[in-house]
Amino acid sequence: MGKTAGGNATRGNAARGQSPSFVIQWHDASQRHFDVRLEVGGVLKSWAVPKGPSTDPSEKRLAIEVEDHKLDYADFEGVIPEGQYGAGTVMVWDRGGYRNLDSSHSVAEGLKRGLIEVWLDGEKIRGGYAFKRIEGGDKPQWLMIKMRDEGADARRNPVSTQDRSVKTGRTLAQIRDAEAST
């Protein structure tokens, strides 16, 4: 998977009694997309979201389930070398904690059932989001849908207006260029 980050971080927030974490990484790979990752059961459950998250509840974003990642991958920002899985530049676009909005099921159970509802408390994205599994495709496909709440805003488009890392303040190009010069 290329470079790893986070050093010795083996326990996530949930294991330490804090809110579980989420991260959204902007990934400039063969196709530019956003990877939305939720800490669940000691791993990062992950979806590739081609258009990135929306703050407009009327927009449903395709979210393709991808392999789980280790918790320390949430902190990775850099370039995955050519020839390796996921080759390309990765930015920590947003991060924070989240909570389950469904009091009748855990997030892990919701994943099995095909519906999770979470409140994301990030630096760019805040509010309720539903992930609903749909039929089709080689990999499980979901929809990522913004809920109607105070974080909803049909006029706001953070994917196009907020292009810097919450970790380092760099753009994708600056991350790529910095790694190329080392």
Structural overview:
The protein is 11% helix and 40% strand. Mean pLDDT is 91; it is low at 1-10. The two termini are 19 Å apart. 34% of the residues are buried. It is built from 3 helices and 9 strands. It has helices spanning 107-113, 158-161, 172-180, and strands at residues 21-28, 32-40, 43-49, 60-69, 78-80, 88-100, 115-122, 126-134, 141-146. β5 and β6 (88-100) form a beta hairpin. The chain has an 8-stranded antiparallel barrel with strand order 1-2-3-4-9-8-7-6. The chain has 182 residues and is mainly β.
Put the structure in a nutshell.
11% of the residues lie in helices and 40% in strands.
The string of secondary-structure elements, in order, is EEEEEEHEEEHH
Q: State the oligomer.
A: single chain
- Widest beta sheet: strand line-up: 1-2-3-4-9-8-7-6
Overall shape: it is: globular
N-to-C span: 19 Å
Q: Considering DSSP H and I runs of 4 or more, what fraction of the residues is helical?
A: 10-25%
Secondary structural class: mainly beta
Strands, total number: 9
Biggest beta sheet summary: 8 strands, antiparallel, barrel
What integer is the average pLDDT?
A: 91
* Unreliable runs: 1-10
Helix count equals 3
Radius of gyration: 16 Å
Strand content bin: 35-45%
